[in-house]
Specification:
Length: 382
């Protein structure tokens, strides 16, 4: 018998995202595991969910968004990377860029930056940080991204708009959109089997994602039709915002919250999507999200969930072929018209397309194989 081929070690790492984050593990990670002789390790925040896809998970200690613990997290990640000694490091946050560069210098590993956010715009145009800190932090993050560019072997962009917004990534970038994994079984929606109209809001719970728009719309719809229910499923990183959400819904028995102060697994979110009648996407107008495609837009369309969608032209156009949405003015919703369309519109007369992960994974796999093959050839030549 021949000697077993030693597996190539790859690490994907973040600070605030779960170690079993869906993009890091179920999408990028699983695609690599299935494509070759790779050993995958994922580093991130703790979450109470089962490990999956034969990926080794490493949980970082919990930390607040603004704290000294968070400042020290990159050091913990570096210690783990030094112990694992990967041939490729994929960092999924700007906070680990210095760590990635240091590992590249010390071990000659390949470094990939998975750009999941335009952090400059996120910091500058949302309330995640105090106003006095925003401009300084935004400039620091953008400066860091530009400075480390020579050491980054390739950039993976989660949004097409980043091709224009992030000039420093050129020419070594590839766009791998955050599309949804196709459902393992056909979704059957039996509307109003319990007499209720089940609305759903998933993902990050924040003012910048429109959670209060969703709550206010549900209240207005419920006032006209008491069968309306709203389920909020997601994590709120800012305790004061979570307090405000709880205060806003405390007298509303028709609104429930799953998550809030704690992380929620993606499996719980997908299960909620399967059970819902309508999803709500209600991002307020903001430069940080104007050009992006929300991950939940892919998820709702991919699971054939009708959407109450803010009247943002690019997102509405994306829904039109199926059709998948009712366009809503969340500042001044026409409640009677919305309810009528909810009851009478023929959603998904055309099956969803162009929203599934399998369309994205092949270019990503080819990129990783190319980077590692180049590395192997270099070692052979030496």
């Amino acid at each position: 018998m021949g000697q077993e081929l030693k597996k190539i070690k790859i690490v994907v790492a973040s600070i605030l995202k779960p170690a079993n984050d869906v993009r890091m593990c179920s999408k990028l990670g699983k695609s690599l595991v299935d494509s070759g002789n790779f050993e995958l390790h994922s580093i991130g925040a703790h979450i109470h969910a089962n490990a999956s896809h034969a990926i080794t998970l490493y949980f970082l200690p919990a930390c607040k968004r603004i704290s000294w613990k968070r400042v020290l997290q990159p050091l913990r990640v570096f210690k783990l990377l030094w112990r694992i000694k990967p041939q490729l490091v994929i960092v999924a946050t700007h906070e680990l860029l210095w760590v990635g560069v240091l590992m590249k210098i010390l071990t000659r590993c390949k470094l990939v930056y998975d750009v999941q956010e335009n952090y400059y715009r996120n910091i500058l145009f949302t309330n995640a940080f105090p106003k006095l800190l925003r401009y300084v932090l935004a400039l620091y993050v953008r400066g860091k991204e530009i400075i480390v560019t020579p050491w980054v072997d390739h950039f993976v962009l989660a949004e097409r708009c980043y091709q224009q917004e992030l000039s420093f990534v050129k020419p070594k970038y590839i766009t791998i959109e955050n599309k949804v994994e196709a459902p393992v079984h056909k979704i059957y929606r039996h509307h109003n089997t319990d007499g209720n109209i089940k609305l759903l809001f998933t993902g990050t719970l924040a003012e910048s994602t429109g959670v209060f728009y969703a709550i206010n719309l549900a209240k207005k719809l419920h006032a006209c039709n008491n069968a309306v229910r709203l389920k909020l499923v997601g994590y709120c990183s800012q305790p004061n915002t979570c307090d405000a959400i709880n205060e806003s819904i405390k007298e509303c028995s028709f609104i429930s919250l799953t998550g809030g102060y704690g992380l929620v697994s993606h499996e719980i979110i997908l299960d909620a999507i399967e059970q819902a009648d309508f999803g709500i996407i209600a991002y307020p107008a903001n430069p940080s999200t104007a050009n992006k495609i929300p991950t939940k837009l892919y998820e709702y369309i991919g699971y054939a969930l009708p959407i109450l969608l803010i009247s943002h032209a690019p997102w509405v156009r994306m829904c039109e072929p199926y059709p998948a949405c009712i366009a809503v003015d969340f500042n001044n919703p026409d409640v009677s018209s919305i309810l009528e369309h909810m009851q009478n519109k023929n959603f998904y007369a055309v099956a969803p397309a162009h929203v599934y992960w399998h369309e994205e994974c092949v270019p990503f796999i080819n990129l990783i194989h190319k980077l590692l093959n180049q590395d192997l050839k270099l070692k052979m030549n030496n």
